[in-house]
Structure prediction request, 747 residues.
Amino acid sequence: MAENVYDAIVVGSGISGGWAAKELTEKGLKTIMLERGRNIEHVKDYTHTNKNPWEFPHRGGRTQQMIADYPVLKRDYALNETNLEFWVNEKESPYTETKRFDWYRGYHVGGRSLMWGRQSYRLSDLDFEANAKDGIATDWPIRYKDLANWYSYVEKFAGISGSKDGLPQLPDGEFLPPMDMNCVEKDVATRIKEHYKGNRHMIIGRVANLTAPLQNRVNCQYRNKCWNGCPFGGYFSTQSSTLPAAMATGNLTLRPFSIVTKILYDKDTKKAKGVEVLDAQTNQTYEYYAKVVFLNASTLNSTWVLMNSATDVWEGGLGSSSGELGHNLMDHHFRAGASGVAEGYEDKYYYGRRPNGIYIPRFRNLNGEKRDYIRGFGYQGRAGRDGWSREIAEMSIGADFKDALCEPGQWTMGITGFGETLPYHENKVSLDKNKKDKWGLPVLAIDCEIKENEKKMRKDMMEDAKEMLEIAGIKDVRTYDSGYAMGMGIHEMGTARMGRDPKSSVLNEHNQVWDAKNVYVTDGSCMTSAGCQNPSLTYMALTARAVDHAVGEMKKLNI
Amino acid sequence: MNRREALSAIGWLMGGAVIGADLLVSCTSRPLQVNDLFNQDQITFLNEVSDTILPATSSPGAKDAKVGAFMAVMVQDCYTPEDQKVFMEGISQLDEQCEKKNGKKFLECDTKQRTAFLTALDEEQKQYMITKKEGDPNHYFRMMKELTLLGFFTSEEGSTKAMRYVAVPGRYDACVPYKKGDKAWATS
Prediction:
């Protein structure tokens, strides 16, 4: 076997790439995982994870130099001192914002699985049937029954904690024990349930943090420092979970600093024969060959690879025959909600830092209700006691002021909506050949925005939050809309959607590129609609399912 | 001795003898420059300002947590040039205002005078921030107060002695009793 020949190639090492590598190698395929960035070794390379707050010179804040170096990251909370090395170097890897798009990237082994929010929810048929029922975009080629067992499969391995709530719009899964709600959250949940007669629910977040040991991983230690990387393996990441499993098979080769620039398409077989790699350190170009390619480079970068794989057969890129490649970019719009004060809990507190909040599953446009927009939103939130940064209006400076701040403040509770964004054809990405990255490669131009449906939904996201909090006894409730630009949700989805027809979709029901059946795309780019649930668990399930299909097809000699 | 320890030693030397602080420095040589913006005198000054905002009580105060040096790092690294200017000028303004009111510089005042003066300055700052229009400069004492709170409550002294800090909680107890006087958790 030649040096650069494998059974399978996985492009990318984040949440879905890690799953592809684990599944392929466990099924006996010699696999190479190509990662464009540096390696980050589990535990060893979590440089800041055991630091105390005072060991950061700016206590976690941002310097003027950081602000200058990270023109995109600075737009939200992500720019900070404690895990700066996990975010992409924006100067090396620019992109073009035809309209504003906040793109938060992690170019290293593990990708954003190291920094993700870990909220893990299943989609339901409410989501899979939505496009067909609304007559928009294109129908998902799968239904919940196609994915249900795969959700179970990945949940059991990844370790998702949560409660079983019996809600059709948010199917239960194979959960580790749920984390607990605090005193205020429990009472708010009870009052919401009573008032809405079981039509609205507040549940504990379903989160990829271990509430019991799993495999070789220690359960969550409640430090709430997940995005520094966890030395206990307390949350799911490539490093803590899928990569060690893949390595244990002896079938995985991991190659960092490997920018996949194109998929090599063979006109005669109508399949991919491999990929071209640019070594990010040496600038040398290599070719790797395999029977099957899993493209898991992250939503927009997988589409970039496809577009950059243009040939005289497919001038718009591999998978472009439908005209949908690059289109239908989605995210979740958020940062609208309400918060207020909980009175009467002054004798209650908590111990430990729970890396999780509460979740209110979608309740709008269900059971025949019709708002002035379609689809819906869920809420994430939490209650807690104010810390030292609170204002104490009647106090100024001095000993009493200090001693007051050393005690916890009042209880507050806030909830923020996460709303579905529709798949608009005109929300798109394309190659900007006039701008090059550090390696001379063309960059992506991103052109998208939210429209009337999302804007109308945001009003409900505020007003419903206020109503529910007030009904639950929260005082001084204030609504807010802190403004949203696409990308901020860090849930970018679409641009290589699945569908039933090669004329209107890029991928088929097994995530195969219609135009090259041995290329599978199983990251967020495959999404046909967005739902309002955090999407990563769905990528895991789709990936495991697609690998199972690919191996079956290889055995049948179909690919 | 690292830089912070050095600062601490100087701070201790000067701590008791504030009246002679200016004199002491002018007698020796130019004050030690700590970074591009701040010299040692200014850090001593900021330590005293911060310690008036958050004094030692049953737990250490801001000076014990070396908040002056922290402010110097934050202003130099994190502030915009405009805010840096406001802050640096604020150091002199604070002294000038203090002299107008008390007939002597801030470091020459006793604890009671310092507290009364900064209480009034904090009121001025609060009023200013209410009427401040967008684009108007921030108030220097607002900056000093904010940096004092941040510097102290995220310091080791503030986190572990003024509040409670557990690096690895190991579990989550969702609902535990609280009685008045119990310290807050330092981090959330």
